[in-house]
User: Fold this.
Amino acid sequence: MRLQTTHLAEHQLRELRRLLANHNGSAGMAAASLTPHELADLLVTLQPAELVQLEPVIGVERLADAVAELDPAEAARLIVRFSRAHAADILEEMEPDDATDVVEELGDEDAQRILAEMEDDEAREIRELMVYPPETAGGRMTPDFVSISPDVTVAGAMRLIRAQAADAETIYYIYVTDRIGRLIGVVSLRDLVAADPLRRIGDIMRHQVLRVPAATDQEEAARLLLDHDFLALPVVDAEGRLIGMITADDVADVIEEEATEDIERLGGSQPLDEPYLTAPLSQIFRKRVVWLMVLFLAGTYTSAVLQLFSDTLSQVVALSFFIPLLIGTGGNVGSQIVTTVVRAMAVGDVAFRDLWRVLTREIIVSLCVGIVMATAIFIRSETMAVDATIGIVVALAAIVIVVWAAAVAAVLPLILRRLRVDPAVVSAPLITTLVDGTGLLLYLSLARVVLDL
Amino acid sequence: MRLQTTHLAEHQLRELRRLLANHNGSAGMAAASLTPHELADLLVTLQPAELVQLEPVIGVERLADAVAELDPAEAARLIVRFSRAHAADILEEMEPDDATDVVEELGDEDAQRILAEMEDDEAREIRELMVYPPETAGGRMTPDFVSISPDVTVAGAMRLIRAQAADAETIYYIYVTDRIGRLIGVVSLRDLVAADPLRRIGDIMRHQVLRVPAATDQEEAARLLLDHDFLALPVVDAEGRLIGMITADDVADVIEEEATEDIERLGGSQPLDEPYLTAPLSQIFRKRVVWLMVLFLAGTYTSAVLQLFSDTLSQVVALSFFIPLLIGTGGNVGSQIVTTVVRAMAVGDVAFRDLWRVLTREIIVSLCVGIVMATAIFIRSETMAVDATIGIVVALAAIVIVVWAAAVAAVLPLILRRLRVDPAVVSAPLITTLVDGTGLLLYLSLARVVLDL
Assistant:
């Protein structure tokens, strides 16, 4: 992705902080013209004393918008720097689903104290949302939906919407529920606007409403919303009662979060729990070292293979010159293919049933690639003035290694998914490591046969 | 990402095709119950004769929904299998922005013939949209927005919306334009519903409307929409006239497309132009082989380094046993860091100004990682019964290589971005390749000094 969200430049931040420090009234004015995103940038750099000064100028509504822009962990660290009363005010102004994410990141004690300062209604909503794990539909949903009875008229529904417009997160879908709160239909604001004001909602509503249980994975819910181009998706409890909805603005967040996790996994580490720059170093260390050790252990057999062939290597030391180039090329081919295949699986373009098709395609492409790389490595060996027979061995090994790497990288992610192994284990470094040792075995065996050692 | 969009199972597809082949009426019934996504799955497997049969049962509207689910290149291949008149009908039913994407993938001749069959209005819209490159705001936008004059009353606006509700892509934002079509304000349907019916639009509209010029990169537009949680973003021409809008459902598509491109680049290939399974093999070959050759050339100096140290290697052949493990570990560390940093840059968490912070963090973490890996590799050398001094050399080299790989991987993406080099060049395989040769140089120099060769 090439473009970034707008950020304040360093000098703008400095200028704003200077104005604040001098109790200059224009600091508030300047801060008031910032977008929520830019205001968030400013807030995280301020001291508690400066935050106190800023609060009356900015107003709690804009502060809430800014806090909602932050990652929940970062927002939690910011919010405790306000007084508890102010923190409670800010959380009250936020959408309940966003506020819940922040409260979940607070320490237990801070969370309880701030919740105690909040209005009962808002605090109850947050406590209810905290029941659902954050990465589920229940954890993402907002309880601020509009629901009506099927017996209301279109005109009556419009009156009701007008009254609720300020509180609901979206009024573009109005859900229809029966007496015990079960979801039985939906009308869009668009339908209402176009409908005869005297008709009953029950007569114009759509009866088939796509819904998800609260325990649904957030990504599954996001994809449903996307596939159907909906603006919101209702969430129901085990009895089919409507308890919330997921809105379209959550979808892009979910897609982006999940893409980030996939990228970190493909790069060979466990995904971080929070943005890179604010994640504690100990967390980064833990997330990385686990996979490095696994890869190290998987890679130790390369040393065994080389030890096995130590006679060959000491007789023809030139063979060792090409080890990094050969296993590097194999690793690069594997990396290209595994990232493409894992991504194609993630977006739903490839599934296990495509195994043979994927394998055939990759074998054909890698044979062509192998021939190109073999030519290149043969030319390189000639420029190094090593024996031409060695050049031929290296070139043949290049073809074999490229095709072998392609086959492993194409098939392994699909098979592991089929075996229900967490796809997190298939990374480019893993394929590289697996191909390294087998590639060496192929190369040195070939050398032994051809060079008659 | 763990979850995929719904697909038809193989046996469902077979059953549907069997019913169709037997001219069984229930085929249409069965097909009618499919989601647009599932219907798209079915359509691409059908022959022209089967498509003709299906068309009257399914109806052009549902066909259009299904075609819109496909990737444009795939949709173009499908649409030419219908008669030209049917193809024109389907394109007319689609949103103009989606239809344009498909027409752009058709051959020139097919495109002109199908456009000639379409209603003049719809064909003109598509021709106008084709002016803008596909990856810009102009290429993504729909021209089906609702706009009104500021002098209309709220009640008048509602009447107008009711009349346009069927054609417009969204009626949730109504744009206010002056006499020559320049964008001067916006009201949401939400505002309208809550407003006094007798007030003038000019009095209730918001004057500050975020807008983008048609040439804006699609990702920049998507991020603006996301940052502001809007449902749509207006697009203007050079004179400030409103020419279209980008809607929220495009945003998730853009984010997903761009994430896929990033992932393929990080894996070391150029992004494919269409979904993996339908991309021609020649395209896959071209996209991959370019980077493989670049990486090969960048990696050739590894062989020069090893040739330079060939005396050392023939004197102590055991040194070569650890080459793959050492450069593998360096490459894995580099891969972890470069993917994390490039992703953090993409989502806007890290910029050039954070260079020193990133570098310091990575040096600290990698020192800890280096010590762990050094211990592991020393233990491994002991189990292989090589000389303990060699084990110490290998362990020291591990620390140096890990820290060096971390520094390169942390700094290079930020510096390249600063130099305005296309970030596409920074991939995990590139870092691995760069670190391979320098790592070997460090390792073998250290060996020469310590072992006094």
The radius of gyration of chain A is 30 Å. Residues 10-131 of chain A form a domain with the MgtE N-terminal fold fold (CATH 1.25.60.10).
